[in-house]
Amino acid sequence: MTRILLAVVMALGVAGPRVVEARQAQAVSAQPAPAAPADGQGEFVPVSELPPTEQLPAAPLVLGAYAFIWAAVLVYVFLLRRRLAAVQKDLDQLKRQTRS
Amino acid sequence: MFARTAWLIFRKDVTVEVRSRETLATTLFFALSAVLVFAFALVKEGRVVADAAAGILWIAIAFSGTLALGRTFERERYTDTLRALMLAPADRPAIYVGKLAGVLALILVAEVMLVPLVALLFDAALLARPVLLVGLLLTGTLGFAAVGTLFAAMLVRARSRDVLLPVLLYPITIPVIIAGVRGTAALAQPVPDESMAFFWLMLLAFFDTVFVTLALWTFEPLMTD
Amino acid sequence: MSLLQRAFPALLVAAMGCFVVAPYLIYQAPYESTMGLVQKIFYFHAPSGMMMFLGAFISGLAGARYLMKGTPASDRVAAAAAELVVVFGLIVLVTGPLWARKAWGVWWQWDARLTSSLLLWTMFMACMLVRKYGGPGAEKLSAAVALFGMANVPFVYVSVNVWRTLHPKTSVVPSLAPGMRGPFWFCALTFLLLFLVLLSVRLRLGEQQEELETLYLDLDDAPVGA
């Protein structure tokens, strides 16, 4: 029961930020490129002339960051469970040995 | 009793070293080779990058120090004298201080060779303010050796002791390196920045106080099984 | 640590619940004026950093207690917390550059906070390496490393700060706008719950390993033919 609950919540938690960020990314990219005009200049600045940091799309970085966090936590939990299972197996084996 | 124990251990180490000269010779030559490697790596068109001389000096000290620490305790391990020391009715912190003094002396001798060499090879006015420089070298080396002696003593029984010592030592002695390099670089400038060097000296002194105290406190629990 | 074990189910449910809610809170938090979307990484990055320092603090203290008293429980806590420092530190050190690349234009900066985090992570990696490859008595050495590492943090911070005075300082965390404080503290709570959950599981692993060791030793001591 706990495992099903865990799986459902994890799926929600993984899907949640991604859906949300994808929608946000769409909204952001739909707008014209945020210009950085010089003082007194209110003109249009083409995207290719913006400084490099402005040209980078933020969405992949944000998605990548959240995906990494999830992956790291899940991998760690997986490793913990594997180690616990191994120790549990050894314990059971030893207990059987001492009892016999 | 404490001081006498420490002195006896220090004298033993120095006597062994003077007679065999093994660790001293290898450490000195290693320091020289390290400086040469840096010379070829960092010199461009006959001049070295600015402030690099200070950096090279302290890296050479760190590397030679690690080597000296390794060799000193390897000798103890080989002859199993460390266990004998632990079994002796001696104050444990006194043993630590004795070993620390021995390692410190060894690295300081290496520095006596290194400082003029680096100043010469890289055309750096390191000796402009000798008192401050000596202060920086003493406090820096003490900080490095204090942590190193503790870890090296503990790692004597470990399998991967040679590689684990730098792995443990370098991150913890980063403040020593930063302070040493920046302080020495401040002194090597065309107009030596004495106040800056003094700040770094004070930081090093503070570091030494904290970490020697910590080392004295943890030496006994670490060395008892 | 039985208190932690007893609270585990509640902690687990609370943590999972918070993690479901968090993305929506982050979504409706206002955009930061200069950095825009990429600043949203902050809501998980900064709490991870906080948990890393919390873990380091716990591990250092537990290590000191282990050196003083020699109780196996302190050693288990020190080991568990050290592992968590490495995990949360990894999160911080990967998400940070991802944020920095967009916000500052560079992947890495040698300012005090970043350098301290990197060094702390390195020291606790060393802690775990020692525990694994250090031979007999490695737990004590690992405890000493954790203790020294913790004591070293202020020195690293001060020295790197002064080392960098000649270079422009970039503030990592801008002062929080009111609309961001709610989501931020909620995420901090979320990560604290996650930390406690992981710590609890890791401690259980430590206890099981301890039990296994004891059983092995008993087996060795048992009279022949038993």
Sum this structure up briefly:
Chain B has 225 residues and is mainly alpha-helical. Chain B has helices at 2-20, 22-42, 52-78, 81-87, 92-121, 130-155, 161-172, 174-188, 194-223; strands spanning 43-44, 47-48. In chain B, helix 2 (22-42) packs across helix 5 and helix 3 runs antiparallel to helix 5 (92-121).
Descriptive notes:
The complex is a heterotrimer of chains A (100), B (225) and C (226). Chain A is mostly helical and 100 residues long. Chain A has three helices and no strands. Chain A is rod-shaped and about 85 Å long. Chain B has one domain. Chain B is globular and about 55 Å long. Chain B has a two-stranded antiparallel sheet. By secondary structure, chain C is mostly helical. In chain C, helix 1 packs antiparallel against helix 6, helix 2 packs parallel to helix 6 and helix 4 packs antiparallel against helix 5. Chain C has one domain. Chain C is globular. The longest helix of chain C is centred in the last third of the chain and has 44 residues. Chains in contact: A-C, B-C.
Low-pLDDT stretches of chain C: none
Overall radius of gyration of chain A: 25 Å
Q: How would you characterize the largest beta sheet of chain C?
A: none
Q: Largest protein interface?
A: A-C, 42 and 43 residues
The rounded distance between the terminal residues' Cα atoms of chain A is 35 Å
Helix content of chain A: over 70%
Structural shape of chain A:
rod-shaped
